[in-house]
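As the next step, I needed to go through one protein, both as residues and as discrete backbone shape codes, included below for the reader:
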Amino acid sequence: MLNTLSIALLFLIDFLLQSIFNLSNPQHIQFVSNLHFIALVVYAREDDRTDIAIKVLLVSFFMDLIHLGSFPAYYLAYGISILVIRFWHRHVSDSYFEKMLIIGLALFIKEIVMFFALFVMGHVDVSITWFIANRSLWVILFNIVVFPIAYVIINKTNKLIKNYSKRHYQ
């Protein structure tokens, strides 16, 4: 439950960061804050399959609600990304640097799957190279820069859960 609340808090921070970035409105750079997705990637290692699947479905549903006409794109992009990252997490330790690498990889997978899903649906009419250079690269770089915000919130949530379980289950 607290993990879900931390994802909701990160959604709010995403909207705030996106609003601030859009005020400056650089024309050639597209930035989409994905702190909620970063939390899903981190929780993919900690949660069991059912919990992470429910979280991915709920987040994808919410993203679909706020992006009209994008029905399967978020389900595919988030689902495939989390599936690949969940498999790869087994082979990587839990250091801060490795979490950043996994998040960069997950964001790249999400962006590529999102491009192809939107391309097939006819919502994108740019080339893959333009999409990577003008959107995906900036999304990955900026989200790695703001990763510490998500990292602090996720760690605080984990501490709250551990303290609660110590008090009530020991």
Summary: The chain is about 80% helix and 0% strand.
